Amino acid sequence: MDDTSYPAFMATTKRARRASDAQTHTMHGQHFVDELDETTARGWSDGGSATSGSRSTKCAAIANATFERLAARAIEARAAGRVIDIPDDALDVLAWLYGAKHLHKALEVIQAGRVKRVVGEKSGRVMYAVTGSGSHEAPYLCFPSHFCTCRSFFWECVSRGEALACKHQLAARLASVLGACASSTVDDLLLGNMMMKYMSTST
């Protein structure tokens, strides 16, 4: 696997690293990508010619590290009374992981207010109801890290293994980190009934 197979911020040659550094954007005087877990980056390059399975695992690790940094920055922004946003270089990483078109659609879903977070009162269990870009669509039951009832999840993520997540999962995860979704707390029995309803309407 050569350097062109890596996202820019994980380039392994000095020349590629210098090019990456020259293009890296800053936020509050620090590089976003420099704050990602260095062991995650090293783990990728140590893998040599990765299989599709190991590549997917490493991409997921990079995604987790990216969202952790976004969550930390969101907390800092709230404490300082700043506007919560996503730095350009973080968007570059997310676009590399999920695809620019996929990311754009997820951001459109968030901006349209189509992500709803529902929490069980006693259990603390969390589900997301995410409506796609079409206003006629029924909401999909979504768990950002591992499941969505949309067809794209089963086709692209499960059957073909070509994507880390569908756009609904990505939208739910970003909205959760950025605090950009409506949230409500309901009785656990109602939460279970809602899950069953979303499952039945999407099949």
UniProtKB/TrEMBL annotation:
One Gene Ontology biological process: double-strand break repair via homologous recombination
Transmembrane stretches, by residue range? none
The UniProt record lists the SWIM-type domain at 128-177
Q: Which InterPro entries match?
A: Znf_SWIM
GO MF term set: zinc ion binding
What keywords tag this UniProt record?
A: Metal-binding, Zinc, Zinc-finger
Q: Zinc as a keyword?
A: yes
One of the record's GO cellular component terms: Shu complex
Which PANTHER family does the annotation name?
Answer: ZINC FINGER SWIM DOMAIN-CONTAINING PROTEIN 7
Q: What is this protein called?
A: SWIM-type domain-containing protein
The organism that produces this protein has a lineage beginning with: Eukaryota, Viridiplantae, Chlorophyta, Mamiellophyceae, Mamiellales
